[in-house]
Amino acid sequence: MDPQKSRYELAKSLASAAGVLAKSHFQSITELRVEKKGAQDLVSNADVEVETFIRKRLADMFPEDGIVGEEQGNKPSQSGWTWVIDPIDGTANFVSGIPAWCVVLACVHDDTTKVGVVYEPCHGEMFCCALGQGAFLNDVPIQVAETRGLDDGSLGVGMNGRSPRAAIVKFIDRLMELGGVFYRNASGALMLSYVASGRLIGYAEPHMNAWDCLAGQLLIAEAGGHVEQQSADRMLISGGRVVAGAPVIFDQLISMADAAFGDD
Asked: Considering the domain boundaries, does residue 146 fall inside one?
């Protein structure tokens, strides 16, 4: 089987299985053990267990592939392929009983994201794509919104402990000046998936880690949206700024991000 296709098929089945495991913990959240890594940055035993599950399956199926994950150490690639894992994106929601979290898998080869899967178990939504093959939600093709401008839909805006407060305020203030509204649900991967499926018109965040954004960026590009171009390998090392959206508003989003966040 083609290397990209075989990894795409595994990513979908693995995200689904990991989602079942994560959801079993979500349904027993009073039993979770939660630790605080930083401001608004939590980890639970569920995150660690789900990532361990994913890593074991990957090691069984593609033992020479590299792995970059949020909760555990990185494994160098011997095959040229690297998996990027966020076992539960939206942990703050997860541990609070809010059904806005997801399992995220991406696969990188030749400095390019080739596979992206975001699975949201609470509503049974599987957002998935492979480079050059289009984007899908539960096997139905999706596309970005046909918005007329920033005043025609909601824009996802991300923030975290690394985000300068003044930069976020400046960006949101400019968005509101232009008649726009912002949306945030504390799961960057899920919001990027909502852009790909046309629910949000775009997304901007000063800095994201690779496990939070690579899958969603590929989803948006495959759904006909525009994504700020970056080196996937560099994102694996240090993360970076993320700007993406419907074609009509993309240049405007870049200008707003430059003014508020600075050039990444």
From this structure: no
